[in-house]
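Budget justification note: compute hours in this period were largely spent on complex prediction jobs such as the one shown. Inputs:
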Amino acid sequence: MTEAEYVSIWMRPERSAYGPKPVHSRAKITAAAVRIADAEGLEAATMRRIAAEIGAGVMSLYRYVPSREDLVELMADQVLGEIDVTAMPSGDWRTDLTRYAGGLRAMWLRHPWIATVQRSLPSFGPNQLLLVERLMGVLDALVPIDENLGLVALLNSHVESTVREEISTAREIHRSGLSESEWMARSYPYIDRLVKSGEYPIFTKIVTEARQPHLSREDQFRLGLKRVLDCIAAALPATAESPMSAH
Amino acid sequence: MTEAEYVSIWMRPERSAYGPKPVHSRAKITAAAVRIADAEGLEAATMRRIAAEIGAGVMSLYRYVPSREDLVELMADQVLGEIDVTAMPSGDWRTDLTRYAGGLRAMWLRHPWIATVQRSLPSFGPNQLLLVERLMGVLDALVPIDENLGLVALLNSHVESTVREEISTAREIHRSGLSESEWMARSYPYIDRLVKSGEYPIFTKIVTEARQPHLSREDQFRLGLKRVLDCIAAALPATAESPMSAH
DNA sequence: CCGAGACCGCGTACAAGGTACCCAGTGGAG
DNA sequence: CTCCACTGGGTACCTTGTACGCGGTCTCGG
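Corresponding output:
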């Protein structure tokens, strides 16, 4: 792990041409890990569990992946590849970004464990790179690169934060083993005490007046996304107005 | 852990009036855990380490905290309390939100480990509640509660995403044991290969043309924040224009 | 004033989990 | 054919969260 021997996981060859043919592969291991993490959470994707899933010995995995951390990085890039951006610079930026946002959200909901992985810039996996090309291609002709970076970051951060909240709620519900309504009912005594105390007027207002929390997740998402897209629209030159800007 | 015996950590009394006086306290334990996590990361804040820090037996901690997970929740609420919002509904929403955003970012940078804690709605700790009151009080008179929720979420998600990236980069640098420039130099071979391949024009454009990545973290943050605040301004009724809206 | 019993600190013990180390077998290079 | 870098994988070690139980202590009901 010294600096001399550091190489990004993406530059490290999977195998050399020497010796016996490997029975497994990074792709197979990654896929198995993703499958387990989807079903039971990232912490369930232990090396032993993954090995069992593909019928390998535990230590065999280390022939393909330097450490569990690197495996998680592989997993993250793999699921990024699921977002369909092949048709992306279509000419209508609003449609493109809406589709991308929906795809990103759907992917996160399919793989809730990505919320717990810390990414960092230099982990430019192949799928992430492809995504960047397509996604930033959407606004590339309309704004300078710095503006593009800022606007895309705005969109990403909104989607991610929204989904992060959806996920942690769902996770909590699942862990409790209750139904959604039972789970919400469980925290009623506490919320009731807070409201009755009279010390939290705004919190009370949210609980009693706000209608947004009672919308479906999809509608909440659509509403928030609309706001962000309007915000992006305002930052674009007037000539770039999308034909769909009226809802 | 059955549903019958569930009570939120915030409703669970710290101690009863019975038996010998406890030597320690939740506050002391939480503070110690935060200190360790700040210095060495959340994963370093093990029960054994915390116990050693305050000179207690490992299992003694469980007299104060039901589990490590709950302790993390306590830690999260504690650091939320560090954001100074006491002067908050000041009448100038732009100043208030700028101050809040700066405080939130500074807090995250002081306690980078919060990026790894999953929150969920029902964990309304006392400090979080206070924060919500003050923060949402800023726009309460200007917009309906649903709009307020949306705008505050927008601000929060932007700040959090930005800081999350700062943090993961810093973490990666720290883990490598290198200086920032050495660390960046380390991924140069990979980036160079990508650029030279010619397959990633936008990525190349970012690497070669974008100036934003070369700004200081503070300037990057200021720029992004300005965009979000402008976006919020656009969503407010015209009469609510802040005196500072020109920059 | 005196049990009783709830609560304290904490040592012991166990079940996971990541992974270092080692060994036997394999198959391409010379 | 020989060599040896490579393979799969078993064993073992260390770290972590925490269940359990023990002996001591303090408050309260009588």
